[in-house]
Amino acid sequence: MSKSTRIIATALFIFQITLFSAQKPYKVPQNRIALAAEYAEKYNKEGEDENEFVILNDEIIYTFEHTKKDYTTDDFYTRAIKTQHTAFLTLIEKKRGYLVDNFDDESSLMKKRFIVNGKSSSRNYIGRDCISNYSESILSSDNRLCSFGFYSEEVGDVSELQIVKTFKNVRYLTSVYFRTNKPIITKRIVFKVPNWLEVEFHEINFDGFDIVKNVEEVTGKNQYTEYSWVIKNLDKSPEGAFMPGGTYFEPHIAINIKSIKKKDDKLELFRDNAAVYSWYQELVSNCDNESIELVRFVNNLMKDKTDDEEKIKAIYYWIQDNVRYIAYEDGIMGFKPDDAKDVFAMKYGDCKGVANLAKTMLTEAGFDARLTWVGTNRLGPKYDYSFPSLANDNHMICTVIKDDEQIFIDPTETYIKLRDNADRIQGRNVMIEDGDNFIISSVPEADYKRNLVRKNWTMDIVGDLVKGRVSREYNGNRKVSIMNSYSYTAAHEKEESLKSFLENHDKNVKVTNYTSKGLENRDEPILFEFDIEQENAILNVNDDLYISLEMDRNFSEADVDLPRTVDIYFGDKVYNVLDVTLNIPQGYSLDYMPEAIHIEKEEYKINASYTNEGNQVKYHREIIIPNRSIKKEHAKEWNESLEQLNELYDDQIVLKKN
After folding, report:
1. Which of 100, 94, 159, 101 lies closest to 125 in space, CA to CA?
2. How far is 593 from 609, CA to CA, in rounded Å?
C-alpha cells in the first residue's frame, strides 16, 4: 500500500469513528438522572436562585516538597502543591459551570484536566478566564481570580475538573475553606505533611458542622503524616443582606507553618507571634525613611505649635488631607511598607506606607511613634493573635505612646479626628512594635453614642404644604462618610449635591436658607440647619388631614430572609434619633395618633412614640444597635420588630376640622 493510500485509509477510519460517535451519543444513566432530580428537589427551593449543579465530591490535597529552583533562599526552596479534584452533577440542562481559584505571583497553575462522564476529554471545556483584582482603591495587585469553565448539556452529566496549583513559598499558605457557592455532597481536605515540615492546624468555626478529622502516620520511603477532614451534605455559602465576612462563620482551617528542615539545617518560620513579628521587623528594617525634605517639612509644620496634642493633630491631619490611600496587594509589597520619603514625595501609599510616613514624621517631631499591625473587623473574632499567622493582620496603623497612653493613628481614615478610631478597628487586638519585642494591645471600643445621628423638625401646615425648620447633627462614621463625599464632589457641584442630600433626593421636598458647620472640621460634629417645604405630604379627606411625622423610615427595609444561618451584621454601631414637632393649625384638633412602640432587646432598642401637648403633636423615635450585630437566633424576632416599626411608619396622625 502506497503512502498516499495509507493516509486516505487512516482519514476514512477516523471519519468513520467520528461518525459512529456522533450517531451513538453518550446516554446518561437513569440512576444519575434520578439522583439529579433528588438533589434538585432538595437544594432548589422556591423563591431562591436555582442551583444548576451540585458538587458530588470535592477533594483538595496539599503536599510539600523542596525544589531546586531558587524561589526563596531563606525558605529552603520549599513549596506547597494543591491538587483539587471537583465533580459536578448537572441539575439543569445546558448550563455553564465554573471552578474558581485565586492566583498571585507566589502561586501558579501547574496543570489541569477535564473529565466528562468518566472519560478524559476537552469536550465542552470552556477554558480559564482570569480577572485582575484592580479597583480605584487598589493601585497594584498581583491577585487574579481565575475561573475554569465548562458547559454541560444533559441533566445527570458528571463534569470533573482537576486543578494542580503550586504555592512557591509555603509561608503564604494561610487558610483553606470548606464551602463554595454550590452545595457539596462530600468534601475532603487533606494535608500530607512530611517529617521535615512542622505544621500546626487551627480549626475555625467548626461548631455546628459535622466534620470528621483523621490523622494517620504513613511509613515507607517518604514518610509523612496525613491530616484529613471530611464533611458531607454541605449547603452552599449563605448569601443575603447584612452579612459579615466569611471568617466570622465559614468553617475553615488556618495553617501555621512553624519550621522547615533540610538535611542538617532547620529554619524557624512562624512558631509563635514573636517569629511573625521578627519577620515583619526584617521587612520594616529595609525601609529607607531618611529625607532632608521630609525633615524640613516636619520642622516647618511644628514651628508655631507648642502643645503636643496640637503637634500630633497637625501631622495626622496633614497626612489625611494630602496623602491619598491606595492599596498595594502585589507580592512582598503586600507586607513591606514603602519608604516614608517615597510616600511623602508621591503623596500616595497603601496602609503600610502611610503608617510608616506617620511614624517617621511623628518621630521627627519628638514623639514615641511605632508601627502597629492590626486585623480589621472584616476578620472574625478568632483572628486575635491567639495563634501565629500572617492572616491575623490585614492592616497597618501607627501608635503614639505618650504618658502611658496609646494613641492610635490610622492615616487611611480621612476626616477622622484624633482618638476617634473607626468602627472597623475598635476592639481589635493590635501588635505594636517595641524594638526586638512587641506589645499586644487593643484599640478602645467606643460607645454607640459616637455614631449619633440626630434630626429635629418643627412642622407647620400651610395650605397644601408642610413647611418648617430642620436641624441635623452627624457624628462618628456617618459624619466621616459625609465629609468624604463632600470633599470628592467637584466644586461647581457641591451646592446642588448638598441640597439634594438635605432633600433626601425627594422631588417633593425643597430646601432653602441652609447653613452648615463642621463640613471641613473633623474635630466637631457636622450641623445643618435649613428651611424645608414639602408637597404631597398631606391627605385631605372631607376636611380631615392625614399626615405622617416620620421623615426617614430608618431600617424600614432591613429585614432578613429566614431561616438565618449567619448573624445579622451592620458593620457600624447605630444610634439614630428623630424628633418632630407639628404645630396644629388653627381650626383643627388632634383626632388620632398612632400608638407608641417600645422594643427593648439585649442587642437593639427601638422606641417610637407620639404625644399631644396643647396645640402640638410631638413624635420621638430612636433606634439603637450598640454592638454592630444581632445573633442569628434572633433574626425572626428582629423581623417582627421591624414589622411593628413599619406599621408605625405607615400610620398617620389625623387632624379633625373643628
Report:
1. 159
2. 9
